[in-house]
Amino acid sequence: MNQYVISAYATSPSFNQWQPHIESKYFKQLAEQQEIIGIEHPFLLDSDKYDLTWLADNIPSHWSIMLTALPTFMILSKENPGLGLAANHEADRVIAIKIMEKVADYTRQLNHLLQRPVVSAVHFHSFPRNDNTAIRGSKHALKRSLHDLKQIDFAGAALNLEHCDAYHMGHSPEKGFLSLEDEIEVLQDVGGYGIVLNWGRSAIEHRSAEGPLLHISMAKEANLLKGFFFSGCTSSPENTYGAWKDTHMPPQQIVDSPYLDQDSLLGHSEIKNTFALLASEHYLGIKVLDTSLEKTLDKAVGLNLSTIQALSHKGDPWT
Questions:
Q1: pLDDT tens for residues 232-281?
Q2: Mean of per-residue pLDDT scores for the chain
Q3: pLDDT above 90 (res 78)
Q4: Most buried residue, 9, 19, 232, 282, by most Cβ within 10 Å?
Q5: What does the alpha-carbon distance between residue 112 and residue 133 come to, in Å, rounded to a whole number?
Q6: Residue 277 burial (CB < 10 Å; 0-12/13-18/19+)?
Q7: Position 169 confidence tier, pLDDT thresholds 50, 70, 90
Q8: Is CATH 3.20.20.150 correct for 4-312?
Q9: Residue 293 and residue 15: Cα distance in Å, rounded?
């Protein structure tokens, strides 16, 4: 049986408006599943969601937490598109380091709050966005930042760079961060870091289901792959998830479920081919999103459990 870290915030029934009692029910139902061993949890600035007292009451003892800095950087980059750990502009790079210092503070707070090293990993990214209007980031700037991060106390949490789709001349990127080649080069030069991949983000970058397999092989060859998250995507512009959009689409209807989507490129064979390249030392995650306007507890739980069922399905796909 595979076990997963769930990006619970992406399917949260409180995604639009914080409802602590509903969110508690959501976490409780997820915690009852033996396949779920933790959550990817967002570091947020100035948010009313997930205050420390609520987390102390709702994180079960068998869960670990993987912190992601992505939501905060996405919000701040709307005002400052040059912001990031790979920023060519030094002032923007320094701001990014200061944000990561706050992530480290939050890591220590969570560990103290729950009286154990609950934060097992921190996911960071090679912001800023590069596109046809500007090249804002570089591997040289990222290398400086990785050296700076080594001076910050993350309380023993692993520091893993999550690769997102890189900028290619042929199409507009979703994230537009550095190439996996550049990230690998820098991580190998500095040492002490790992890589996390996401199926949908690698497929979006390469406009192909072969993208994730290529990226897994590259990261494994460099001995850097630490984790892998399953999100889908679609090439269909009519689908509500959008064509080649980083919207965390669930898999195809491999099992009978109203929460899966037949337009998804993440099908039975793609899942099988992906698992063939992964090993037991790689932690597994699931990140799916509810795109409907009305968020419900049933769908929040159902999206995640249906995805787990699809990933574990051994027989022929349901039709």
A1: 999 999 999 999 999 999 999 999 999 999 999 999 999 999 999 999 99
A2: 96
A3: yes
A4: 232
A5: 44
A6: middle
A7: confident
A8: yes
A9: 10
Q: Are 260 and 288 in contact (CB under 8 A)?
A: no
Decide: 183 and 163 in contact? Cβ < 8 Å. Answer: yes
- CB 314 within 8 Å of CB 271: no
Q: Which two three-digit tokens encode residue 235?
A: 């090439």
95 residue type, one letter: I
Kindly provide the b/e burial profile for residues 139-159, where b requires at least 16 CB atoms within 10 angstroms of the residue's own CB.
bebbbbbbebbeeeebbebbb
Say what the alpha-carbon torsion angle 205, 210, 212, 216 is, to the nearest 10 degrees. -130
Q: What is the CA radius of gyration of the chain?
A: 19
- Pull the structure tokens for residue 68: 């992601």
* Domain-wise residue ranges, the chain: 4-312
Task: Give the residue among 35, 12, 34, 33 at the shortest CA–CA distance from 24.
Answer: 12
Instruction: Report the half-sphere exposure of 111 (CA within 13 A, side-chain side).
Output: 18
Q: What one-letter code names the amino acid at 32?
A: E
Q: Are strands 283-286 and 4-6 parallel, antiparallel or unpaired?
A: parallel
pLDDT in tens, 215-242: 999 999 999 999 999 999 999 999 999 9
pLDDT at 319: 44
